[in-house]
Automatic annotation (TrEMBL):
<feature type="region of interest" description="Disordered">
    <location>
        <begin position="155"/>
        <end position="175"/>
    </location>
</feature>
<feature type="compositionally biased region" description="Polar residues">
    <location>
        <begin position="1"/>
        <end position="21"/>
    </location>
</feature>
<dbReference type="InterPro" id="IPR025327">
    <property type="entry name" value="DUF4233"/>
</dbReference>
<protein>
    <recommendedName>
        <fullName>DUF4233 domain-containing protein</fullName>
    </recommendedName>
</protein>
<keyword id="KW-0472">Membrane</keyword>
<feature type="transmembrane region" description="Helical">
    <location>
        <begin position="38"/>
        <end position="61"/>
    </location>
</feature>
<feature type="transmembrane region" description="Helical">
    <location>
        <begin position="93"/>
        <end position="110"/>
    </location>
</feature>
<keyword id="KW-0812">Transmembrane</keyword>
<dbReference type="Pfam" id="PF14017">
    <property type="entry name" value="DUF4233"/>
</dbReference>
<feature type="transmembrane region" description="Helical">
    <location>
        <begin position="67"/>
        <end position="86"/>
    </location>
</feature>
<feature type="region of interest" description="Disordered">
    <location>
        <begin position="1"/>
        <end position="32"/>
    </location>
</feature>
<feature type="transmembrane region" description="Helical">
    <location>
        <begin position="116"/>
        <end position="135"/>
    </location>
</feature>
<keyword id="KW-1133">Transmembrane helix</keyword>
Length: 175
């Protein structure tokens, strides 16, 4: 049989012999993160890889001038990454929408890959719309749940900001 040393038991844990301990103050909920931003940034990140590898394929087919391939391939991949980084503001969503249109338009620049690139561009455009709409719907539901959790936390003695009731570790009220 092994015994647990008292130093291994945290101070807030109840004493097994008496069942008493210092009560833990419930933590206030954290604000929800945006599902739309998560979905759209994931899609743009994956799209950056697809654009880069499509450029490598076009280069291998020698379908278009190398300068055009480099400009469209590397520029498109970097634009996807830039748009994913800008999703904190509405500009990122506008740039992402513009990129979806450009990806469909690029299909007509490379005739040997037209059918494949058009299919890929249309799939990404449809996924962009799905990410935008479903993500926005999830964000609304998360905000409603956050408001309810915050009201519950405030009703149970927390101020809803840092998970405490305003008193310090020693019981003094902080200014």
């Amino acid at each position: 049989m092994s015994t647990i040393s008292q130093s291994a038991v945290p101070e807030s844990a109840p004493d097994p012999s008496t069942g008493q301990g210092s009560p833990e103050v419930p933590a206030a909920p954290k604000p929800p993160r945006s599902a739309r931003r998560l979905f759209c940034s994931t899609l743009l990140g994956l799209e950056a890889f697809v654009v880069f590898f499509a450029a490598l394929t076009a280069y291998g087919l020698r379908a278009v001038d190398t300068g055009v391939i480099l400009g469209v391939g590397i520029g498109g991949a970097l634009a996807c990454i830039l748009a994913a980084g800008l999703l904190r503001s509405f500009v990122g969503y506008l740039l992402g929408t513009f990129i979806q249109g450009c990806l469909v338009a690029v299909a007509f620049l490379v005739p040997p890959m037209r059918d494949h690139m058009l299919a890929v561009g249309l799939v990404f455009a449809v996924l962009w719309v799905i990410c935008w709409r479903v993500g926005a719907r999830i964000d609304v539901e998360r905000e409603e749940r956050y408001a309810a959790e915050l009201a519950h936390a405030r009703a149970n003695g927390t101020d809803g900001t840092d998970g405490t009731d305003g008193s310090g570790a020693d019981g003094r009220v902080e200014p």
